[in-house]
Design a protein that fits this description.
four-stranded parallel β-sheet, 5% strand, globular, Rossmann fold, 29% helix, 4 strands, mainly alpha
Amino acid sequence: MIHRNLVFLFLVSIWFIGACQPLQTPSVQNPNPSDGEGFLPSPTKRVNQSLTGTPSSLNQAQPSPEPQGQQTIPPLPTLTPTLLSIPSDSPTPQPSPTPSPDPQDWMEWPVVPLPSERVKEIYQTGLALGNHPNAFSKVGDCGSTPSWFLGDFDRGPRFYNLGEYTYLQTVIDYYQGSFGRTSLAALAGYNTSSVLTPLWSNKEFCANDESPLACEYRLHRPAIALITLGANDVYHLESFEPQLRKIIEYSIEQGVIPVLATKPDNVEKDHRINQTTARLAAEYQIPLWNYWKAVQPLPNHGLQEDGVHITFASNDFSNPLNMQAGWPVRNLTALQVLYALYTYLNTQ
């Protein structure tokens, strides 16, 4: 029986590793347009197949007990550019007095959410508990690891180009240390159950009875958590809602603002996961980052041929061709979500 259990765990581990593997490995573009090479000049062509796959490996940051110091809140900029063709709110969001939108209409919800008063309440609770206002955590699968998601913004300006979105440098500076950090609640194959199960926690940093989520919150003490789960829940749809509820409620209890994200695919065929995610966001009055809506105008909705993995290009937001790929749009809109929360939480 022990041998059979070990074989089962080995097979599950192999599936986890393979769950986020790309279709192919491309030659990655030069992230600095000033170098004069690596960026395709024509914005009229569809995303080149060489842009799909995986970015270059990063020297991932080891989990640290706290972010790189407390920072002074920089002055808020006055620039109000618009994200691609996606409507966006003012860079200084204000709480809305209107009721929450209908979750049935989640496809029409904005990409960048308008924070509610409940968000500020959770934030104030977190500060009282000792959370760091200038730290955020990532909770998800391989798509939440720094090699893919936001890691470039801790590597320096040579690895990204904000283009017209220069106002986002404010949050890059403010949350420095969280972008490239390897979250203990983000790993290939993770789903809503995994992040709540001590079996899957990193024993080098976590207690034996501590879940990946609890371990990440204890060590990093974030004010915000970007929760990008659901892709690996399509085979266990019945457990997605109760497990996501536990993640939300534990986050709120810890004073961490849970930002839920819609996923770009529809592997389950009926958008059930995104609709459930939107419904819970409305119920708990927490932000919904509607990434699904952001990729709808992109070629193949920002997905590779398998309909699951996101198309890749470097984080050059000034290059129209790059902005036809799913990953730079994911990173750009994530920065905009952080900016919306940053300005709201730090505006009287």
